[in-house]
Write a structure and sequence with these properties.
It contains 6 helices and 2 strands. By secondary structure, the chain is mostly helical.
Length: 130
């Protein structure tokens, strides 16, 4: 499971919905760059592989990727040097646990160029199969 800790705060577990909400804030300020970021995230989801070792290593993340999207850093809660590795780690976790799963890919595809309504995207991002 992916966790992070900010100074003077408790340990947190990032979820898709946290990323999605942050991306909506970025989308409002810079739609074109945010949609390019979504395409990049979809590419990560499609390319990342399950792992057998622990702790996991980032497979695709490059600091140059952060530079491409740093125009979005002033919007939302998270910076791109946080979002990009966290998204990749979450996808590694999910590909390892659910190798044939496609729910997360569908969340970001709904968010991206299909312009699904916010209800559909948030519902997909918070879906829990119990």
């Amino acid at each position: 499971m992916v966790h992070y800790k900010e100074p003077n705060k408790r340990r947190r577990t990032p979820r898709h919905i946290h990323i999605v909400i942050d991306l909506y804030m970025k989308l409002r300020e810079n739609e074109e760059l945010t949609l390019t970021l979504i395409d990049h995230i979809i590419d990560i989801i499609k390319k990342v592989k399950p792992i057998t070792e622990y702790p996991p290593k980032l497979q695709l993340f490059k600091t140059e990727d952060v530079k491409k999207f740093e125009g979005l850093n002033g919007y939302g809660e998270y910076t791109l040097d946080f979002i990009l590795p966290v998204v990749e780690l979450i996808m590694i976790q999910e590909k390892t646990n659910y190798p044939t799963g496609t729910m997360n890919l569908k969340v970001f595809e709904k968010f991206g160029h299909t312009h699904s309504d916010i209800f559909s995207v948030v519902s997909a991002a918070t879906f829990r199969n119990k």
